[in-house]
Structures are given as structure tokens and as C-alpha cells.
Amino acid sequence: MKVVTLRRTIQGVTFSLFLLLFLFTVYPFAGKLPVEFFLNLDPLVALVSMVGSRALIVPMLWGVVTLVLVFIIGRFFCGYICPLGTLIDLYDFVFLKKSRVESKDPKPNRRIKYFILIGVIFGALVGADLLHFFSPMSIAPRTFTFLVFPPIVWLLNSIIDLIRPLALGMGFDTMMQFSLQRPYFGNTVPTLLLIGFILAANYWRKRFWCRYICPTGALISLFSRFGLVKRKVTDKCNTCLRCMTKCDMRAIDSDPKQTILSECTLCGNCSDVCPQNANDIGLTSFGMAGYNGQLSVDRRKFIYSATTGLVATSVIKGGVHNKLNSKGRFVRPPGSISEKDFLARCIRCGACMKVCKTNGLQPTALESGFDALWTPQLKPRFGACEDKCNMCGQVCPTQAIRPLPLEEKLFAKIGTAVIDRRRCIAWEQNKLCLICDEICPYDAIEFRIVKTFTGSFKRPFVLEDKCVGCGWCEHKCPIMGRAAIEVFNIGEERFAKGSYITSQKKKMRELTENHETEYNVDALGSGGEVGEKLPNSNQTEKPSKEDDAPIPGGFILD
After folding, report:
1. 38-91: per-residue pLDDT in tens?
2. Per-domain boundaries in the chain
3. Is 413-558 in CATH node 3.90.10.10?
4. Alpha helices in 432-532 (DSSP H)
5. Please, which residues bridge with residue 448 across strands?
6. Comparing C-alpha atoms, which of 222, 52, 30, 18 is closest to residue 131?
7. Residue 77: closest CA among 134, 143, 11
């Protein structure tokens, strides 16, 4: 079998496996299959995540295995395994096979990727993860999640709608209501621009991203130069240079008998086009004897790259949006570690958002600055956090979201619901609305009888000690537009280790109380004062001087 045929076969198998695992990154299959397998293979992701968070991430040690295999075999990962590389080759085959006009000039400088690698590593040293702009194991799954998966689901639903009458006529009554849940994701424009640039740049240079940008390829190339599998050229070579023009990575320059080992992905294109059969890919001696190493980064450029990484990190980490635009609505998934470590570990792959059963996890835009771009946050208006689902932590490759057992996840507090009395039907219109109370799976909302000058009414109150911030109340609130009850990150708990379950929390869950206490509240601006003792009541609530303060329990929001 020719090397190029073998490569395409392996690419087809591995890319199909990547797509299969991607499609199974949904509830409940994600907990039964290693859907994060490909994400754990990137050695640079492992290095940056562990350096940035100053912690050992055991699942990411598969990246070390990749480096060992590269050291022994060569740069096979880029040519045979990488899903982004395969996607680029597929795009090239379909759209650019006849239209590309590439000069023999190898410019721009292929060392650019090494400078990016240095900048990314130095950024990680000060706690910033810049890989989501460069890593193929971040870009590929994120692209498929935000841009490919929703249209596929829409297409499948359209097909189901077409065959539904036929299925019903054949007696398949279950088809009457059957449809796939269609996901919606915001903030897809940056992803579209990035993947658009990666594919469009392929018109100018074959595998432009792999040649000049990809820092993962740069790291792998440092080890691949010593591999046992290399390109071999016999004396039959007549220097026709067909191999040079066909080489995707331009690992062959003016001398066709020389190979730049750090660039060769063992693709086999050179042997496929050689009219003399002088090129081949096979076992050779260990080392670089007789080959072109062509890898040198002088001290000045090293310092420039490191400085650029630090400057980029300072700009991203010091963004003014970090303080101004979160407004307490920045709610992370249950099991998320502290924000600093979370941002250092999260590679923005989108796996947690794709697997979210309710579509409540959404990619962050710039509401918390560039530092949080593409990270997951819970937006209950899209969907709440399902109490019987813990898939987001199961699929996270870097454990930025801990894989909590279901029992543990039920006690992980991610925020607190807050009632806006000016929008709430029960508070503002004196109408009985029980939706938030009925939908709450934690019994964290109770209705109390409140007396006003117009009469006695039932009003909802949030029990802060019981509320975990799941967002079901906000999701189901019947108010159009912004809900009358919203989840804020008040009281969030984010532990890197240890249990979320405490004896106090367990006791609160076990209590079954009947809260039918009467309070005299001037809901409309006149009447009795809050806390006034009512006739036939033994309950008293102390007057509040900060009615407008953002404290859970039915307070007014500005």
C-alpha cells in the first residue's frame, strides 16, 4: 500500500472516530464513552493547562504519550491524527485542488509558530490560557459545536417532518411527537471568523495554519526530528522538484534530497508524485544524520516572543470589562473550580456546552473581557441546570469543571435566585402566580401571606440556604423578556477539591416546613411598615432599611 493511501485511510478512520465521539457528546451517552479522548491527546494543552493552574491533571497525561510516540515515529500526529489538519486537507481537496497557485517561495517564515509557542508558554506561566486561539484540539470541537451541530440537528428535524406523515400512515404513532432538541448558541461570530481565516489562508499556502501558526505543531516538531520514520531519497532522483511542489508542509526545499525533519508530517505526497520512485517513507536510523534540522531561534527573537506573550496576557487579564460588565450574572457550571484556575485550565473546546441537556450553558462573549471569551456560563433563559445531569464535568478534558457524582452535584451552589418585585406578577399585580415555586426542584421558594392596604396576598420568597442557583425559576418565569426572578452568582461555591455536602445542607434538604406566616408589607408605597406584628400572628420580621439592596429573599432590584 502506498504511503499516501495509508495516510488517507488512517485520516478517514481517525476523523470518523472524532466525529462519532463528537456526536455522542450528548446526554446521556457522554457519561458512558470517552468523548474527551481526542482533546486529551494534545501535549501543548496538557502543558499549558497544568502550568497555568499549577496542578497535575491526570487525564491530560495522554499528551505525554503523544510526545513519546512522536519522538519514536516522527511528526505523524499532524499528518494522520489531528482533526483540524484533516479538515484542512478535506477543504483543500473539495474547493482548492485546481484553483491554488502557490509559488516556490516558502515565505512567510515558518519559525513564526515557534514564537507563538514561546508566547503561549510564557502566558501560561503568569496564569493565562491563550491556546483557545491556536490549539487544534480547541478550535476543531468548538467549530463543530457552534457552527456544524445546530444545522445538522435542524436538517434531521426537517427530514423527520417530511417522513412523519408516511410513518404515521404505517402505524408508527411515536413519530407524532418525536423530534430532536435543537441547540442554540450565541457568540458564534468569532468562531466563524477564526475557522474562516484558517480555511481561506489555505488558498495562499497549503496547510498555512500548520506551517506557520499552530503552536501544537511547533511543540511536536521539536521532538519529531529524532524519529525512526523519515523520508528517504535514493540515487534515482533526477532533481525534477515535483516532490517539492507537492509537499504540503514545504519540508523539501531547493535540494530534493534533503528533508526538513521538523516540518515533515510523513504524508507520502513526495513518493506518490516521484516519476523515478526515488522517494519513500520508511524506517531509518535514530537521529538527524544526513537531514536538514533547520531550527534556530536566536536569543533576541526568543525574548521578543516571551515579551509579546506577557504583554498579550496583561492586556487580556487587565481588561476593563472584567469588573464592569459581569453584574453578578456570570454563573459558572456546577463543579467549576475558582475563576482564576478555571480560566487557566479551560481550553474553550465547547464540549460542556454541547453536552448540556437543556442548552443552558452558553459561550461567553465579551461581557467579562477577552480573558473569558468562549468559556461556558449558565444562561437560564436558554435552559436551566438539570438536577439529574452532571455531564459537563464528565466531558471536560482539563477538569476545569470537576466530574461530580450526581449526589454531590445536587449540593454544589452556583448562585442564588433573586426576585424583582417590580416585574413579578405576584408582587406587582397582586395576582397568584405559582410557577417558580412549582418548578423549583430544591423547594427553595415559598409563598407567604403578605398584608397590604389592598388586602392579603401570597407572595414568593427565595430561601437562600436552599437555593443552589439552578435557574429553573428564571427559565419558566412567564414574564416576557427579562425574567422577574433571575439567578446571580451570590454565594457561589467553587472548590478545587473536597465535598460540597455538609451536614447543614443535608439538614436543610430534610426539613419539610409549612411557611404560612403573615407579614404586613407596604408593597405599593403606603400602608403598614415591614415587620409590624400582625394580629393573630406570632411572627415578626425586623424592618429593613435597605429594601433595594440585592439580598435574596424577595427584594427589589434596580
Report:
1. 888 899 988 888 888 888 888 888 888 999 998 888 888 998 999 999 999 999
2. 413-558
3. no
4. 435-439, 472-476, 503-510
5. 459
6. 52
7. 11
